[in-house]
């Protein structure tokens, strides 16, 4: 199996064929790859003949490893490229993105970055990969409700243990508050709580970055997350209010080193724009591998706020930094559209409707003129 090949994108994406063509055009044919590590062979191959079959390798080390193990390496952990599964992102990442990436989701208030994080997790679950959600702004029950509101039933994945939650929110409540919260829940939320409880790691003090890191590591170990799965963090902005700036930066760098670079598990972390360009986490650009901008702007359509998204940066792959308008719909997730084209189409339909109405009125007037007696009696 060639682990360096990209995973398939969402079949419903109309741009997927173009993206696949761009990606495949840069992918060397199978015959030009090392028979051990599966990487492309850039120089003359090193060969090994065994039982009448000639094998080709990129290095003597790979040849010797093959001879010792008597099989190919199926666990290559290089810069494997994958797709997010979110059509509005994959459209502008024709080569996918490196699995060992830490990506900042820089967003305005109202950009619905929570829905994007939910879709990133959902697409990973659909691919059969595990996922971990780190939540600073919502209790686990609310996180699950966010998935359900988009028609994505994560309850089976919680029950099977494929989805875990690191709870950095309920530390705000003492034992009595937690009891009262549970007592006030309706029957449905108690049901969600019972399903979520066994796969939740509760952080008692999120300002203790050591405890936070340990709880996250516990989830990754429980899910055997290495070169598979995804981690999403709801708000680096909220995390930044709990610790000193130096601690916040070091935590992000440590997670990037341990989770992304050490385990080859991508991390997508939200950060709400506050207007201060040089404040945490918006001056993290130098320390992260990718930045996705989610903006709410009134400059496209007068008196209307439009959400738009772009990939500002993605190390190691081709990224098209083009703004595109989007909205979220239940079941489909992020859907892109052209607001100007839609307005023009609406205007055309309105004009067609006005023209049809004028023609109908003229026809009625002509009919009345030809039949004055009918017009006077109201058509009786």
Structural overview:
This protein has 380 residues and is of the alpha/beta class. It has helices at residues 16-25, 60-69, 87-90, 113-126, 140-149, 155-160, 175-184, 187-197, 209-222, 236-240, 245-263, 339-370, 372-376; strands spanning 46-50, 53-57, 81-82, 97-98, 102-107, 131-135, 163-167, 200-202, 230-233, 267-272, 290-301, 304-314, 324-329, 333-337. The protein has a 10-stranded mixed β-sheet with strand order 8-7-6-9-10-5-11-12-13-14, with helices on both faces. A two-stranded antiparallel sheet has the order 1-2. The chain has a two-stranded antiparallel ribbon with strand order 3-4. A hairpin with a 2-residue loop joins β11 and β12. It is globular and about 100 Å long. It starts with 15 loop residues before the first helix and ends with a helix.
Overall average pLDDT:
82
Poorly predicted runs? 1-16, 22-28, 74-78
Describe the biggest sheet?
10 strands, mixed
Record field, number of beta strands = 14
Kindly, what is the distance between the CA atoms of the first and last residues, rounded to a whole number of angstroms? 81 Å
- Largest beta sheet: what is the strand line-up? 8-7-6-9-10-5-11-12-13-14
Helix content: 25-40%
* SSE pattern: HEEHEHEEHEHHEHHEHEHHEEEEEHH
C-alpha Rg, in Å? 27 Å
Number of helices: 13
Structural class: alpha/beta
Per the principal axes of the C-alpha atoms, what is the gross shape? globular
What does the secondary structure layout of this molecule look like, with pairings?
Elements: H1 16-25, E1 46-50, E2 53-57, H2 60-69, E3 81-82, H3 87-90, E4 97-98, E5 102-107, H4 113-126, E6 131-135, H5 140-149, H6 155-160, E7 163-167, H7 175-184, H8 187-197, E8 200-202, H9 209-222, E9 230-233, H10 236-240, H11 245-263, E10 267-272, E11 290-301, E12 304-314, E13 324-329, E14 333-337, H12 339-370, H13 372-376
Parallel strand pairs: 5-10, 5-11, 6-7, 6-9, 7-8, 9-10
Antiparallel strand pairs: 1-2, 3-4, 11-12, 12-13, 13-14
């Amino acid at each position: 199996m060639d682990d360096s090949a990209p995973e398939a994108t969402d079949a419903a994406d109309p741009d997927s064929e173009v993206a696949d063509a761009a990606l495949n055009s840069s992918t060397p044919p199978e015959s030009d790859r090392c028979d051990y590590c599966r990487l492309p062979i850039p120089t003359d191959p090193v060969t090994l003949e065994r039982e009448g079959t000639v094998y080709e390798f990129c290095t003597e080390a790979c040849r010797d490893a093959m001879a010792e193990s008597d099989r190919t390496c199926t666990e290559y952990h290089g810069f494997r490229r994958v797709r997010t599964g979110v059509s509005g992102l994959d459209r502008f990442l024709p080569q996918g993105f490196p699995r060992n990436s830490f990506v900042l989701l820089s967003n305005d208030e109202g950009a619905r970055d929570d829905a994007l994080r939910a879709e990133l997790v959902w697409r990973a679950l659909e691919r059969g990969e595990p996922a971990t959600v780190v939540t600073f702004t919502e209790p686990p029950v609310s996180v699950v409700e966010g998935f359900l509101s988009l028609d994505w039933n994560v309850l089976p994945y919680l029950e099977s243990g494929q989805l875990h939650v690191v709870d950095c929110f309920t530390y705000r409540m003492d034992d009595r508050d937690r009891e009262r919260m549970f007592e006030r829940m309706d029957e449905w939320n108690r049901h969600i709580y019972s399903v979520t409880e066994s796969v939740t790691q509760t952080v008692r003090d999120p300002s203790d970055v050591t405890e936070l890191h340990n709880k996250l590591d516990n989830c990754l170990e429980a899910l055997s997350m290495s070169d598979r799965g995804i981690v999403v963090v709801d708000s680096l902005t909220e995390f930044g209010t709990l610790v000193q700036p130096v601690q916040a930066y070091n935590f992000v760098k440590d997670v990037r080193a341990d989770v992304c670079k050490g385990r080859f598990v991508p991390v997508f972390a939200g950060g709400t724009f506050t207007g201060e360009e040089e404040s945490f986490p918006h001056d993290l650009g130098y320390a992260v591998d990718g930045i996705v901008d989610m903006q709410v702007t009134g400059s496209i359509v007068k008196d209307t706020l439009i959400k738009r998204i772009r990939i500002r940066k993605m190390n190691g792959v081709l990224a098209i930094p083009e703004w595109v308008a989007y909205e979220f719909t239940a079941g489909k997730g992020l859907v892109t559209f052209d607001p100007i084209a839609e307005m023009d189409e609406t205007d055309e339909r309105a004009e067609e409707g006005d023209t049809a109405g004028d023609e109908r009125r003229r026809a009625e007037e002509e009919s009345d003129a030809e039949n004055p007696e009918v017009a006077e009696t109201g058509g009786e």
